[in-house]
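Possible regression after last week's pipeline update?

I re-ran a chain I had predicted before the update to compare outputs. Posting the input and the new output here so someone can diff against the archived version. Not blocking, just want to make sure nothing changed silently.
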Amino acid sequence: MCYNKIKIEFLSKSQNESFARVSIAAFASQLDPTIDEITDVKTAVSEAVTNAIIHGYESEEEMITIEAIINGTELTVIVNDTGKGIDNLELAMEPLYTSRPDLERSGMGFTVMETFMDSLEVKSDKGRGTSIIMKKIFNPLS
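New output (post-update):
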């Protein structure tokens, strides 16, 4: 069984979103994904990191941590921030809901993550931050 793990940490600057997306895609490449699978992972990571920057920290510069774990053919990606947390998680997970309409946000971040990954779990504590745990199962290596 294949097992590997990485952890990266970066400032919550919008420029770092592409770094996070590409880093996790590079790590996942050892699972020999299809182009579509790697695009799915990159899109989900992009949404999670963008949520942390815009909603968790409200554009203040703080640290975001991403852990990625490969266990067999499953990739787990955990995006953590220590920002303000989510007031109403159930409402936040509804399609088209946004807590920042002033920024013309679509409110589709969690929906996109759920669509492109096999599972999504969100844990949030008011004033303490949010963890987004996403999993994707890849076809077994030949």
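Follow-up from reviewer: compared with the archived run. The chain has one domain: 3-137. Marking as no regression found.
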